[in-house]
User: Which sequence fits this backbone?
């Protein structure tokens, strides 16, 4: 009897999730996944900053400069508040999309997703230019290690698309594959 009830409950859950997936557009699910991914990345970054701040504070307290260590650790840990409080562009766009009527969501979602990808592409190029300038500065100052690190960072930003760009390309591929 318990097995039959469990099977019925599993079937109800699966059928309800399938109908929810069928109601949402491809763009909505891609943007929702992107927003969730960026939210988790933001929280991980925040907790890393909290950990680094605690590590600096504890090491400063152990060393002979406890006041400076605690102050710097608190400043680094306090910087983590920015990670927790400021949502990413994908999160803000998804929240705005959810507030729209369902009839307008399909048209607006495509625009939102392309705007997010274009912004990420632009910032990726800015980072590449900054890393390139840092590489040149390191080379002028004679730091070969700094040059290699910055040049590698510049090459990375130029060659590899961001998560937002990959999500938009995935959406375009899904649209092209849909009959």
Assistant:
């Amino acid at each position: 009897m318990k097995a039959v009830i469990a099977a019925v409950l599993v079937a109800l859950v699966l059928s309800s999730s399938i109908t929810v997936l069928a109601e949402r557009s491809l763009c909505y699910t891609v943007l929702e996944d992107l927003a969730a991914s960026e939210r988790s990345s933001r929280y991980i970054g925040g907790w890393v900053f909290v950990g680094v701040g605690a590590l600096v504070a504890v090491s400063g307290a152990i060393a002979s400069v406890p006041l400076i260590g605690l102050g710097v650790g608190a400043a680094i840990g306090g910087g983590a508040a920015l990670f927790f409080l400021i949502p990413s562009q994908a999160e803000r766009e998804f929240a705005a999309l959810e507030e729209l009527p369902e009839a307008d969501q399909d048209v607006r979602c495509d625009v939102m997703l392309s705007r997010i990808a274009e912004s990420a592409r632009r910032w990726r190029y800015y980072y590449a230019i900054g890393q390139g300038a840092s590489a040149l500065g390191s080379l002028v100052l004679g730091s070969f290690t700094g040059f290699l690190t910055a040049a590698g960072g510049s090459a990375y930003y130029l060659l590899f698309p961001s998560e937002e760009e990959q999500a938009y390309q995935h959406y375009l591929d899904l649209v092209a594959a849909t009959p």
Notes: The mean pLDDT is 84.
